[in-house]
Amino acid sequence: MLKYLKMITEENWRWDIVYACINILCLTFVIAFVVVQLVSLLRKDDIKKRSMAIMQPERKFIPQARMTDKQIGDVIESVLNYRKVFSIKKVPYHRLRLHDDEALLRSQLFYENMKMRRCVQEFSPRPVPSKLIQNIIKSAGTAPSAGNLQPWMFCVVSSHELKAEIRKIVEEEERNTYSKKMGADWVLDIAELKIIWSKPYLTDAPHLIVVMKQIHLINDSNELTSTYYNQISIGIAVGILIAALQDAGLATSITYPLYGGEKIRKYLKRPLHEEVFLLVPVGFPAKNATVPDLKRKSAEEIIRCYS
Amino acid sequence: MLKYLKMITEENWRWDIVYACINILCLTFVIAFVVVQLVSLLRKDDIKKRSMAIMQPERKFIPQARMTDKQIGDVIESVLNYRKVFSIKKVPYHRLRLHDDEALLRSQLFYENMKMRRCVQEFSPRPVPSKLIQNIIKSAGTAPSAGNLQPWMFCVVSSHELKAEIRKIVEEEERNTYSKKMGADWVLDIAELKIIWSKPYLTDAPHLIVVMKQIHLINDSNELTSTYYNQISIGIAVGILIAALQDAGLATSITYPLYGGEKIRKYLKRPLHEEVFLLVPVGFPAKNATVPDLKRKSAEEIIRCYS
């Protein structure tokens, strides 16, 4: 800089001013560039740290990416993995053998049963046999998953105290979201607004199933490995869970925990490689339960045929 | 540059070389910065374009975010929307009334039935009654969804020609992914590798249900509106679809289209606000179908009780 100021006083000052300006501009850009790159680097580190979240320090994380873009000839593990694909033993498939008419009748009955399902928020205090809960979760566990990794864990919360704590976390989140989204809740009657964010059914239902999605799995060597398409796999598992609940005459009103999932995970002492996916309160519906008068789309609105 | 070269020949050459070097370095950084920023800008534009994807130019997109962070007193729509929450008519809930023993028996039978389900890749050419397919999709359509938006569309592809085209797209994607991930496929027997990426069941099955996820919906005023948690909602719907298929004695082997979804969407002439979620081939299983000898996790491995 001093160099340029000195130059300005000399005879060829005009070009030097231009050069100095360019230099200052360049410097600004360089600083901006470095700052931007540093910020993005720190962010990446943060994401990495999160995804690498390990419960116990001795567990090593093996990123699947390490396997990619390598030549098979160089990496013996790839070859071994590749061979494993073919070494899976095939067994006969035990199938239901139904006549067309029987299949049709069953599909009609299944639909009629599912059609009756609604999100119910009024639960009966009638206790639910634990064997029933177990059968329903076992049914959910039959869901297909990418690579048969079964990236799920179902936490059945039955104690009133624990349910109340989870309800508090969810309501807090709901209230924050609603007051932010809807704006100035003081404009409206607080008592009325309460109806929106209040979730009494989370404690009214005898059981609250907290569905955990496993982002990573722990292998036999106590290392964390990746799971694929876990969001899709666990969504399907919850679908089967809901079908099983309905088939057994139980009710639910699935709840998304918004940003309260992390608090709930910690509260239930679940490991860092799990994430709260959904809350599924479970119980028999109250005797005179009511549901919102909503309509489902017709078959014509959801089916397109290409034949 | 010339300026600096000239300077070097002068008496105070050492400092000038340093300055020149710094300038060249700065210039390199500036170019890198500009390139990085431009690339990220173009990418953002691309993402924006995709998410704003509109089928017909006259359709306006109303981002839900416009509603957020506003004071209710200022925005009449918020108040109207808020009132709507309470104006939803409540109707009695029609429920299954089952005795505990009956519920237990049903849950046990449901589980036994679901337990038999496996991903089957060997299909019988036996035709599937279209009424059966319809009942199964109607069952999937009973799934709960965020805001009752039902963000799904089920495309039933039955023509062999169309199925073959979709199979081609998926196999192309699979082959690319495998050759990239596994590396040098020339190292291995091509014929063997074919077993991995080849998807004959996509054409063998009499029907191929292409499950579309609706990122946006079109309202009565022909405008695009957002859907929430559509990934979760449609995952649940596919779960019920799979349960319904199994209950009717049909088989499937759900397939993820990898990056081929966009091509399939275009091929089926589905609008831009839809996205291929999964491919569900549907048919009766082949008489002597086999399945991989995989194990499911036990109840103890997927259930945790908090009581």
From TrEMBL, chains A, B:
What Pfam families is this protein classified in?
Nitroreductase
Membrane-spanning segments: 17-42
Q: Which UniProt keywords apply?
A: Flavoprotein, FMN, Membrane, Oxidoreductase, Transmembrane, Transmembrane helix
Look up keyword Flavoprotein and say if it applies. Answer: yes
Looking up InterPro entries in the UniProt record yields: Nitroreductase, Nitroreductase-like, Nitroreductase/BluB
GO molecular function terms here? iodotyrosine deiodinase activity
Entry's Gene Ontology BP terms: tyrosine metabolic process
Task: Enumerate the Gene3D superfamilies for this protein.
Answer: NADH Oxidase (3.40.109.10)
Give the residues annotated as coiled coil: none
Residues of the Nitroreductase domain: 115-283
GO CC annotations? plasma membrane
Q: Which family is this protein grouped under?
A: Belongs to the nitroreductase family.
> Which PANTHER family did the record assign?
IODOTYROSINE DEIODINASE 1 (PTHR23026:SF90), NADPH NITROREDUCTASE (PTHR23026)
Identification of the protein by name: Nitroreductase domain-containing protein
Q: Which organism is it from?
A: Onchocerca volvulus
Give the classification, highest ranks.
Eukaryota, Metazoa, Ecdysozoa, Nematoda, Chromadorea
